[in-house]
Amino acid sequence: MNEPAILIRLDSPARTYYPGQSLSGQYRLESAEGDPIRAVEASVLWYTEGKGEQDLAVHEFWRRDSQGGEGLDPRRPERFSTTLPISPLSYDGQIIQVRWCVRVRAFLSRGRELVAEKGFRLGDRPQQEVSPPEK
Amino acid sequence: MARNFRYFEKKRGHRRTGSRTLGSLGEALFFASLLVLGCAGLVAGILWLLIPEWRLHHGFKETTCLVQKKRLGEKEGDGATLYRPEIKIEYEAQGKQYSPWTYDLNTADMSDRAYSSDRAAVEAALDAFVEGQKYPCWYDPSKPDRAVLVRAYQGWLWLVFLVPASFVMLGAGGLVYTIHHWGKSAEHRAATVQRAQPSELFDLDRPPGPKLPNIPELSDITNSPGTTLAYRLPLSHSPGWTLLGLAAACLLWNGSVSYFAVAAVRSHLAQQPDWLLTLFILPFLAIGVALIVCLVRQLVQALAVGLTLVEISDHPLLPGGEYRLLVSQSGRLAMRSLEVWLSCREEATYRQGTNARTETREVRRLPVFRREGLALDRGQPFQAEGCVRVPAGAMHSFRADHNEVRWSLVVRGETAGRPAFERAFPVIVYPLAGAPVPGSHAP
To answer: Which of A19, A81, B95, B186 is the most buried (most CB within 10 A)?
Structure first.
């Protein structure tokens, strides 16, 4: 039997998004028919990596709970959409990295969890759009 | 991949793994034990302190008694003699005569709390009663041989409840927090905490414009207008605080060391040298002298190197932007060089055992200007203008709980015969998308 997995797909093929732009996509669970799903959480978030303790902040958070113990339908794709914030932008520093991702977490029976991430870059607005600062 | 229940936590690189359930259970047990301990303390306090005191004031019956004898009760405490007033009274209750030794409820109950080391206060309490005279007294109707002459409220009793009450508050608060977060994912907890942040309605310092999460506030930097350019930048930390800290450390260290140093010197003067103490104290003395030298050098530098002022033509800075800069350095000294650069530092805080450590790394150093061979005169500060260029694509200022990207303008001066000085002036770099609307904040 295959291990259950979560598939996340973003609508735009570009991996770099810009502040104010809409990020949308969908997720679904594969091969999880035998294991009832109690709840699914989807988040658009950023977290830090590197030398320091991890910081994490959620930009958008959705949670779906099963109704009356019947479990959620794992095959039904679920859509999400959000408008991205101005900051913090993705960053690859020497001891600090800022990463953005869509994270989906499914809560199965007996306390088991499935987690999947789809990373993307939140980049700054292209340079040519900026008017020079007044001096 | 599905994750099973993990008992032990491991740290793999920068990620922690482990059982959230077990962690929450440990937290819950800790707070529950605090709560139980606090409740037990409160119940014990109520049973042993509060109820007897309440009964004395509301259940005891008043009558009149005759003071027959009085004496100073004594017992040996922890290395000291303790005293209590003891008065023999005679009274009639429920048709019978009683003559117990008593004073207050503690004496009547033979409690150790009746004793005090303050003999004078106890003697004064005895002096308030005269043998052969009548006074009001109060007896316990359920046990008529139990009576008191004094029934004042003991205010300190209420302080005793502070300790168990704080345990109850900590335990209950922690337990509610743990139960509220039980089984929640890191994302769910973060979302809950973010929703609980105070509303922007109360965030009056924030200028109007788009929300800029995790970018430090501008107000501390833009609240001081410049005389030549738009803003005068504040210093990241005043040299006065460094001096004060160094002076305090110097005083504390040398004060402690001098006690042993004097003892060592006395032993030599008395022709009975204590060589062990002398050798032991030498490295500590050396550190003390080094601290004094450091303090004197800092003091001389602070007196010789005057004020450094930095003004900038606009703020916040934007990637790809160019800004005029004015640096003014006062003082009376000859300087080999004065250098200004724009610096970007990453600062990461992490735990190592029980210690919190911070690692800082300068990831960009962009020269603004460098002048050499300057002679500063007290009445005429050195002034120079330059141009700051923020590279296109540069990371904006960023601040989270444990990680920070910090931009600043650094002024470094090298003086002849003295250590170099370095002063940092923080600036905020915005992402292009967060560029403020012109006129949204005024100098």
So the answer is: A19
- Using CA atoms, how far apart are residues B169 and A47, in angstroms rounded to an integer? 33
Please list every residue in chain B whose beta carbon sits closer than 8 Å to the beta carbon of residue A50: 14, 348, 403
Q: Which residues of chain B are within 8 Å of residue A97 when distances are taken between CB atoms? A: none
Higher pLDDT, B43 or B106: B43
Q: How close, in Å, is residue A53 to chain B by CA atoms?
A: 5
Domain harbouring B371, CATH code: 2.60.40.640
Cβ within 8 Å, pair A88-B396: yes
The pair of three-digit structure tokens given for residue A118, joined into one six-digit string: 């789809």
Task: Name chain B contacts of A87, Cβ cutoff 8 Å.
Answer: 212-215, 396, 398, 431, 434
Q: State whether A115 and B405 contact (CB < 8 Å).
A: no
pLDDT band at B1 (very low <50, low <70, confident <90, very high): very low
Domain around B229: 219-235+305-434
C-beta atoms of B431 and A87 within 8 A? yes
Nearest chain B residue to A42 by CA distance is B187
Give domain status of residue B205, yes or no: no
- B171-201 pLDDT, tens digit per residue, is 999 999 888 877 788 888 888 887 766 554 4
Count of pairs with CB atoms under 8 A, one residue in A, one in B: 160
CA neighbor of A34 nearest in space, from A108, A106, A107, A104:
A108
Same domain, residue pair B334 and B430: yes
Q: At what angle do helices B20-45 and B162-180 cross, to 10 degrees?
A: 150
**Predicted confidence band of residue A130 (pLDDT cuts 50, 70, 90):** very low
- pLDDT the model gives residue A107: 87
pLDDT classification of B91: cutoffs 50, 70, 90 = very high
Say if B441 falls within a structural domain. Answer: no
Which SS3 state, helix, strand or coil, does residue B46 take?
helix
Average pLDDT over residues B381-404: 93
Judged by CB atoms closer than 8 Å, whether chains meet at B318 and A130 is answered as: yes
Which of A45, A43, A109 lies closest to A72 in space, CA to CA?
A109
- Asked whether residue B230 falls in the same domain as residue B309, the answer is yes
Does residue B378 surpass a pLDDT of 70? no
Q: Is the pLDDT of residue A41 over 80?
A: yes
pTM of the model: 0.69
Class of domain A5-125: mainly beta
Interface test with A, best of B189, B195, B214 (most A CBs within 10 A): B214
Beta bridge partners of B389: B322
Are residues B34 and B165 located together in one domain of the fold? Answer: yes
**Domain co-membership, B280 together with B321:** no
CA atoms within 13 A on the CB side of B243: 11
Q: How many domains does chain B have?
A: 4
Q: Are residues B223 and B341 in the same domain?
A: yes
Residue B285 and residue B146 share a domain: no
Measured between CA atoms, the residue of chain A closest to residue B313 is: A135
On whether both B8 and B66 belong to a single domain, the answer is no
Residue B443 domain-assigned (yes or no): no
Mean pLDDT in residue range B67-93: 88
Residue B279 lies in a domain: yes
pLDDT tens-place string over residues B121-138: 999 999 999 999 999 999
Provide the ipTM.
Answer: 0.87
Which segments of B247-391 are extended strands (E)? 305-312, 322-331, 334-352, 355-375, 382-389
Q: Does residue B176 share a domain with residue B162?
A: yes
